[in-house]
Each structure stands twice: as structure tokens, then as C-alpha cells.
Amino acid sequence: xxxxxxxxxxxxxxxxxxxxxxxxxxxxxxxxxxxxxxxxxxxxxxxxxxxxxxxxxxxxxxxxxxxxxxxxxxx
Length: 75
Hints:
alpha+beta, 2 helices, 21% helix
């Protein structure tokens, strides 16, 4: 089961986040006993290309996430 949100139509070639696999999340997410950090299994619109993967793991993306208040998020 995938949890998705309605999103505006995008170019079919654009890599976009389609949703997360909610059943794969730990059962204690968001509870006092849950971990502070956990992996969120994501579903994308298509398979990533090697250049896109390099960009997702770049220092610039980590900096942009931190600047937006998501310093603990890793892609």
C-alpha cells in the first residue's frame, strides 16, 4: 500500500516523490517510544539516473535541507 498525495501533472521525465510506503514505517513512529530518526521508504515517479543520485547526495542538497530546518534529513 502506498500513501500518495494528489499532485499537479508534471513532465513525465521529471523525478518526483509519489508517496511513502506507510505500512513499512515502524509501528512506533510519532510515539514517545519511537526512535528520533528512522528511514522512510519512498516511492518515486521513476527510477533515478546516476547523475540525479549524485545530486541527491550532494553537499548542496544537505545544506538546502538544513537551511529549511531539516538538518537531520538525509536522502
